[in-house]
Amino acid sequence: MLTRNSVPGPTQARRWRRWRAAAIATAAITVAGLAPALDASAAGHPTSHAQTATYTNAVTDGYSIDFPDPSVIKGKDGYWYAYGTGGPYDETGRGDSYKIARSSDLVHWENKGPIFTADNIPKWAVSGYWAPDIRYINGKYIMYFVVPDTTFSTQGFDPAIGVATAPSPAGPWKDALGKPLLGPTLENGGYTTVIDPSEFTDSNGKRYLYWGSYGSGIRVVPLSDDGMSVTGPATQVASTRFEGSYVIHRDGWYYMFASSANCCAGPTTGYTVFAGRSKSPLGPFVDKEGVPLNASRSGGTIVLAQNGNKFVGVGHNAITTDAAGQTWIVYHGVERNHPYFDGSPGYTMRPMLIDRLDWIEGWPLARGGQGPSDTPQTAPVTTGEVAEDFNSGGTSLHASAGTLTVEPSDPASDAGGYGKLTGATATANTRLPADQHVEADVRATGDNSAGVLARYRDAKNNVAVSVDAKRHQLRVTTTVFGVAITRTAALPADFDASAWHTVSVDIRGTRLTAQVTDANLGDPYASIDTVVPSIASGRNAGVIGTGDVDNLEASALYTPHTSVAPDPRLGRLDKADSDEFTGALGAGWTWHNEDSAATVADGQLNWPTEDTDLSDPNSAAKAGLLLRDEPTGDYTVETKLNLDVGTDTVRNFQQAGLVVYVNDNQFLRYDHVAAGTTRFLEFGKVTVANGVRTWGAAIIGPSAGTTWMRISHRTNSSGEGLYRAGSSRDGKHWIWGAVWTLPAGSHPQIGLLSQGSSAATDAAVGKATAAFDYFRIYK
After folding, report:
1. CB burial class (10 A; 0-12, 13-18, 19+) of residue 570?
2. pLDDT for 724-745, tens place per residue?
3. d(CA 751, CA 772)
4. Report field, pTM of the whole predicted structure over 0.85
5. Residues 6+ apart with CB under 8 A from 626
């Protein structure tokens, strides 16, 4: 290791010459892709200073029993703020129509009151406020909000999206337009679901608003530079099985997160988060299998699904990043054993949860595919090993050049105290690991620039990342032995460097990623991915330039998790409990409401869809079920199903698949379903809780004309049965999704069903026929 005053030896000098030659060849250009590492031996080594604090979901416990549809931002005052759909704080019924919570660590939250009160309620709102989306644009806090019941009609559900602004995350909030940004919209004789807004800013400065839900699907519209008006037509980007979108830009891809199935069915809530990605913010978004999210048989890679622990219905997410560079998924869930507000059985409580979001082979996975946590987890790093908010009247940073003064307050924003740099280089006396995450809020005017320092050893050996107001650039300057190489990325024409923005840099081994955003919400105005020499190994961090800085955080860069949770073990084929349908029905089957239309021929069980629905209490008792006793111990049941429902036509609600049946009020059903023009695989549950019979479902992988379906069974330490659904479009590659539970001692039967048709559907398109190729048990 070189000391401050040492002369490079032959080995270091050779490495430096190789790096400098390669760097000069690409100097002063915008780096579009990640350059190859020049010293692979230095990449990916473990970080030190491990975070030891823990948390346990739900993180809003102790603050509020209900906090649905969360949206999160770190304010310029250094605190984290969360916003959620209204509801009760506790079992007394005390609540607000719209909630603001504040935290210093993302896991302990305090009440900062409602967003709207009688004094600032939008005049066009009748009742209800849903799904807020928080942003920071051009120095203002902006919130996109939903009013489900407006003054524009009297029908009671004519949803619209509005815009509110505030000088600080805690408010006071004001309806910025006095009217909706997106008003109630009539289509096909009814109002579309103009709900669940989510703003996104692209690297060219263009702003977009994603919105939509079941009935309309997810759409995106372009916005004006200030985010206050719609400037073009809507583009459909996801089918009608999705809602609650959230878009980020990462590694050259636009990732859209969206939720499927029902949000609010108590213990049978099956909400699940999916993702697709695209090279354009306008799509097409496709999943890991290449299936479009906007197709009739819509795709979607599972990011977060319930796993059989205390939480079900996990969805409607936001994304945030901590002070170590780790991304986190923030979402709501339902405690399956305490799902309802005591004062109103049937009102589903949805507290806020948070979990680590891993990126594996280019795709996001909550906890590597383990799903929501309900046991102690390593907490987000929200206070760096270097943490300077300039609010104490002084500073812990030492200026080795120029001057750094502390301003006690910022009349232009909510920043509070901040640092003013004049040609300054100021660093902390904290030695960090070589792999670092450094971030700060910065602003610069005129011909000036301001930013952060990483891997700082001295003036001749460091990495500087800054916003250059004169050149209108994000700049990364790597200086080694006094020789500086600069890489740049252009900022959008309307980028206002005089407003606060967040500059961040991650360095792992020889790889560096720098970006500038409004508030570190995954939508960078500019990014630079490049390499740095491993000999640039200073361990300090700080700030540099002429301008203003605040909320400096520097920490050991997070250690990536790259392992994926294993799929269920298949086991060996149990021929005695299986049926290949090569003749008549095999031994072991019994009928519950025998359907004479079901026949075995040509090596298949062929079963036209019945005009019954097991989930409907009005027809459940008539539903035909082909059943056999559940095997003992762990097992997997599999069938190969062809259901001739086609695509893009309305065939409500023809379906067929697997069933785990206790009685008409306690069962699991895993079906290929036609609903509207979409086709999907739905894994649902019926149970009775608090005297309420409730049905809900989770969505698994994309369907196909022929779909392979599995349910894997095991028991937990309490003796409950855990049932997980998997799907395949080729019988070889499997996607595993949500888990449902049945009480210990349930002793269900397992089998097949074909149902969901109706007289109207039969008259319009005829019955569909489910062709089951086999029914196999693996143990």
Report:
1. middle
2. 999 999 999 999 999 999 999 9
3. 11
4. yes
5. 585, 589, 590, 591, 592, 598, 605, 751, 752, 753
